[in-house]
């Protein structure tokens, strides 16, 4: 179970594994999890409280945008 949620965010590629859907190993959990696994657990516990749509023009790099939306879709699919 994640210890806290804020470290699951990838602020400016802090974890250095932005090119894969799994992300890097998450250092904020008691168990060994990838960023994806930890984020899925968190969303299942607290939901995905998105309050505004993410705009395409916020991204300057197409690959980063593509990965962001792929990861967001994974999390949206976890909501029951």
Describe what is shown at a glance:
This protein has helices spanning 35-46, 62-76, and strands at 25-26, 33-34.
Strand content: 5-15%
Bulk shape: globular
Strand order, largest beta sheet:
1-2
Structural class: mainly alpha
**How far apart lie the N and C ends?**
18 Å
Percentage of residues in helical conformation: 25-40%
> Overall pLDDT, averaged?
79
Radius of gyration: 12 Å
- Total helices: the number is 2
List low-confidence stretches: none
Count of β-strands: 2
Q: In this structure, how is the largest beta sheet organized?
A: 2 strands, antiparallel
What's the helix-strand series? EEHH
Task: Describe the model.
- This protein has 2 helices and 2 strands; from the N terminus they run ββαα.
- It is mostly helical and 80 residues long.
- Strands 1-2 form a two-stranded antiparallel sheet.
- It is globular, with a radius of gyration of 12 Å.
Outline the fold blueprint:
Elements lengths: L24 E2 L6 E2 H12 L15 H15 L4
Antiparallel strand pairs: 1-2
């Amino acid at each position: 179970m994640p210890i806290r949620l804020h470290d699951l965010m990838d602020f400016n590629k802090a974890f250095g594994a932005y090119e894969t859907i799994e992300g890097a190993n998450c250092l904020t959990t008691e168990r060994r999890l990838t960023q994806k696994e930890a984020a899925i657990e968190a969303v299942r516990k607290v939901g995905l409280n998105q309050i505004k749509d993410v705009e395409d023009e916020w991204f300057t790099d197409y690959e980063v945008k593509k990965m962001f939306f792929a990861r967001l879709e994974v999390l949206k699919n976890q909501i029951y």
